[in-house]
């Protein structure tokens, strides 16, 4: 059954790029829109997830640290960040996230990363904007930029979650999107099992700015799918700030509940 859902998703992905809104309506008639997580039918004019799945991916704790996105208690002192980030030095100014990277949200993020996960990535991005639209509009970014991957890794993957998520956020907010301003100039090891100090060293000097890019004085929304230790986002934000960016806000689908 999951293979059928994947085939339908691929058909819809291709159709969105090449056919008109009227033809998309006809496609919805043949293949009624389905919840991107469980496959139940949903209203084509509504959210991409059914009510049950929406409740699964929503944050269990509403309060969060604006500096790192970590869940916090209602009475936490966040003047200089929370207990997880207060002693950290970040080049980015704040984090906006949808949820916490565990349980159902973790499974959703892993599926969004996988081949055929572009539709789920867009659905999660749309949910993020819907949940935090007023905050995005208040920050008024000039550019939306994805955390880039090295070109040698891009050759192996037709879908890159950070890019798909960022493009959908830009579309929802009507903000300019660019994937060429920030580049990954050095291939780094996969970081999932590396301690934080090693992650930081691995990312140092790994990003660059395209020579023709002018980001001086710009407010940039830097997008990834998941924020774990913040090492990658921090290195990317530092590169952008060194090139003149005024403000860097990191937007992600989920943040790790504990960062060590």
Describe the main β-sheet briefly.
Answer: 6 strands, parallel
Which CATH architecture? 3-Layer(aba) Sandwich
Cα end-to-end separation: 39 Å
Q: Domains counted in the coordinates: how many?
A: 1
Segments where pLDDT lies below 50 for 5+ residues? Answer: 16-30
Strand proportion, as a percent range, falls in 5-15%
CATH third-level topology: Rossmann fold
Radius of gyration: 18 Å
Mean pLDDT across all amino acids: 83
Structural class: alpha/beta
Commentary on this structure:
With 260 residues, the chain is α/β, with parallel strands linked by helices. It has a single domain, classed as Rossmann fold (3-Layer(aba) Sandwich). 40% of the residues lie in helices and 13% in strands. It contains 9 helices and 8 strands. It has helices at residues 2-18, 21-30, 51-57, 103-113, 118-139, 151-154, 161-173, 196-203, 231-242; strands spanning 94-100, 143-146, 176-177, 182-184, 207-209, 219-223, 226-227, 247-255. Strands 1, 2, 3, 6, 7 and 8 form a 6-stranded parallel sheet that branches. Helix 9 (231-242) links the parallel strand 7 (226-227) and strand 8 (247-255). Helix 8 packs parallel to helix 9 (231-242). The longest helix is centred in the middle third of the chain and has 22 residues, at 118-139. The chain is globular, with a radius of gyration of 18 Å. Residues 16-30 have low confidence and may be disordered.
